[in-house]
Amino acid sequence: MRGAGPLRQRSRRRVAGRVCLAGDASGYVDALTGEGIALGMAHARAAVAAIAAGSPQAYERSWWRATWRYAMLTHTLVEATRVGLVRRGLVPAAATLPRVLVAAVNELARPATGPDLEGARR
Ligand SMILES: Cc1cc2nc3c(=O)[nH]c(=O)nc-3n(C[C@H](O)[C@H](O)[C@H](O)COP(=O)(O)OP(=O)(O)OC[C@H]3O[C@@H](n4cnc5c(N)ncnc54)[C@H](O)[C@@H]3O)c2cc1C
After folding, report:
1. Which residues constitute the domain of residue 101?
2. pLDDT (tens digit per residue) in 6-15
3. What's the structural domain count of the chain?
4. What are the DSSP calls for the chain, one per residue?
5. Nearest C-alpha to atom 25 of ligand 1 is from which residue?
6. Does the Cβ of 34 fall within 6 Å of ligand 1?
């Protein structure tokens, strides 16, 4: 039952001094779209890059860059599936339009990019 949610976590800030929040603790919408682990890894890379560069505050911006697409898409999906008709129709619609489903899944799985995260990958 604890794995059933609601899983939402809100945070006002991700950085305090040299402490950075990453993963679910830094802000989480829902497990519905299944990319929490990739997101946590992206946060960790960005946090390490910011700390190693001597500017932990920069992590706040790279956190948003890594997170906004997931947050927007997952929030939209969670809100849309509150409506019974949408919830019941989602799986049949995905089966009818597999290309749309694949495009949506690929969009979620696409790694976050940006100067800060590129630096972290190096
Ligand atoms: C039902 C469900 C299905 C999911 N499916 C997927 C999926 O298919 N793919 C995917 O990528 N993600 C999935 N997720 C999301 C994914 O599990 C999380 O995003 C990910 O585990 C977050 O990692 P984390 O390290 O931030 O937090 P956690 O994995 O929650 O790790 C936090 C750790 O801190 C420990 N802890 C807490 N408080 C303290 C304390 N005071 N002192 C010491 N330790 C403490 C906890 O015991 C825990 O081990 C799913 C989640 C759920 C609930």
Report:
1. 2-121
2. 888 899 999 9
3. 1
4. -GGGS---B--S-SEETTEE--GGGG-B--STT--HHHHHHHHHHHHHHHHHTT-TTHHHHHHHHHHHHHHHHHHHHHHHTTSHHHHHHHHHHHHH-HHHHHHHHHHHHSPP-SHHHHHHH-
5. 23
6. yes
